[in-house]
């Protein structure tokens, strides 16, 4: 109200490039004209073709509506959403197993950042099955039977009280009436947009999950600002150098800019500097001595290309790395910036010091 926003609850479809029709909860229809529109319809959880329709087979949305605490829970998909929910259910008392068809959990993150989490999950979860395929899911009244095949092709059957399917998300671009406009959607369902988030229809913009990867709320917020500024006639462009990602597991994992793997895949000549949290007094007091901070720099000039952190508060700490990349900082800039002691933020400085060759509190072992 303070911003003079008129809120209408209902389902809208485009009639053309300047009007929509809204189906309201009371069954009435309202036609609304506009000069500009911003699409922000988000995404929904993806599923797998063999998943049966059953209250015992959940997606990530259903898993948040706790009907009960299952004795045994299988999570299909080893990405961040499944692991976050898996740890929550394990804390509530469920015996949690996870199955992933790829060789590693959290495949998008660097393995050294994931390693402390895997150690925790190994003790917390009943079973972690990688390179394993789900062949069949049969839902009964009280349980779910799942047939699995490992990388050698050996098949087994397991029974669980519930199954959580966590294999990603898909954009909500269906049934919006986009066919009545010039808005284009690609083969994966994402709306095609330019750097101002404008679609092929000049009056219509798209932001958030429907505008492409990464599907992150803070990316959507930034896109929304860009779109509004463009509509207002200001110079604006969506062109981030770094996009932070945070996995809210225990321990947390966060990274921004290029990962080590991405840097190598692009053929970049890099220096990777690391600071183990076992050398951080503050991390030890928080029970986070398994943590790690790493800085990825261009070997030629020390420019920071990426930062990765594992440990308590990693999501809070990653902002400094994002700012450093956006500002074009080099490792020396971070190393020479005084950080308060004793804090976890010091680990960013210490990793940058390692990149410059003179880390104060950590000496690399000679190979």
Percentage of β-strand residues: 25-35%
Shape: globular
Order of helices and strands: EEEEEEHEHEHEEEEEEEHEEHEHEEHHH
Helical proportion? 10-25%
What does this structure look like?
The protein is of the alpha/beta class and 367 residues long. The chain has three domains: 10-35 and 173-231, FAD/NAD(P)-binding domain, CATH 3.50.50.60; 57-167, FAD/NAD(P)-binding domain, CATH 3.50.50.60; 245-356, FAD/NAD-linked reductase, C-terminal dimerisation domain (Enolase-like, domain 1), CATH 3.30.390. The chain is 23% helix and 27% strand. It has nine helices and 20 strands. The protein has helices spanning 60-63, 80-92, 111-124, 217-231, 260-265, 281-285, 314-326, 331-335, 346-356, and strands spanning 10-16, 19-24, 29-33, 37-39, 43-45, 57-58, 72-76, 95-100, 127-130, 133-139, 144-149, 155-160, 162-165, 169-171, 204-206, 245-247, 253-257, 270-276, 292-298, 304-310. The strands form six sheets. Strands 6-13-7-8-9 form a five-stranded parallel sheet. Strands 16-17-20-19-18 form a five-stranded antiparallel sheet, sandwiched between helices. Strands 1-2-3 form a three-stranded antiparallel sheet, with no helix packed on it. β2 (19-24) and β3 form a beta hairpin.
């Amino acid at each position: 109200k303070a911003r003079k926003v008129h809120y209408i609850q209902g389902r809208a479809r485009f009639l053309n490039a300047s009007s929509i029709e809204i189906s309201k909860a009371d069954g009435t229809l309202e036609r609304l004209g506009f000069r500009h529109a911003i699409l922000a319809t988000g995404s929904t959880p993806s599923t797998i073709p063999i998943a049966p329709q059953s209250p015992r087979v959940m997606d990530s949305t259903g898993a948040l509506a706790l009907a009960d605490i299952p004795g045994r829970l299988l999570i299909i998909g080893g990405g961040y959403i499944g692991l976050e929910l898996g740890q929550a259910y394990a804390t509530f008392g469920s015996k949690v197993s996870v199955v992933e068809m790829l060789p590693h959990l959290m495949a998008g993150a660097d393995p050294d950042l994931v390693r402390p989490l895997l150690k925790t999950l190994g003790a917390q979860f009943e079973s972690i099955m990688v390179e394993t395929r789900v062949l069949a899911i049969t839902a009964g009244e009280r349980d779910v039977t799942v047939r699995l095949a490992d990388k050698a092709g050996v098949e087994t059957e397991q029974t669980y009280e519930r199954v959580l399917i966590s294999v990603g998300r898909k954009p909500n671009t269906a049934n919006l009436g986009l066919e009545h406009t010039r808005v284009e959607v690609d083969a994966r369902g994402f709306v095609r947009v330019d750097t101002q988030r404008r679609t092929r229809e000049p009056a219509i913009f798209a932001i958030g999950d429907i505008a492409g990867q990464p599907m992150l709320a803070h990316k959507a917020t930034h896109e929304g600002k860009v779109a509004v500024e463009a509509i207002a006639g200001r110079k604006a462009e969506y062109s981030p150098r770094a996009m932070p990602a945070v996995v809210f597991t225990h321990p947390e994992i966060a990274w921004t800019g290029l990962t080590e793997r991405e840097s190598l895949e692009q053929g970049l000549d890099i220096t990777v500097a690391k600071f183990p949290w076992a050398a951080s007094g503050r991390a030890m007091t928080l029970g986070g001595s398994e943590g790690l901070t790493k800085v990825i720099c261009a070997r030629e000039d020390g420019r920071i290309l990426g930062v990765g952190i594992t440990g308590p508060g990693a999501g809070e700490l990653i902002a400094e790395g994002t700012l450093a990349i956006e500002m074009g900082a080099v490792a020396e800039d971070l190393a020479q910036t005084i950080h308060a002691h004793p804090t976890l933020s010091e680990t960013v400085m210490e990793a940058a010091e390692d990149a410059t060759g003179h880390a104060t509190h950590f000496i690399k072992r000679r190979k």
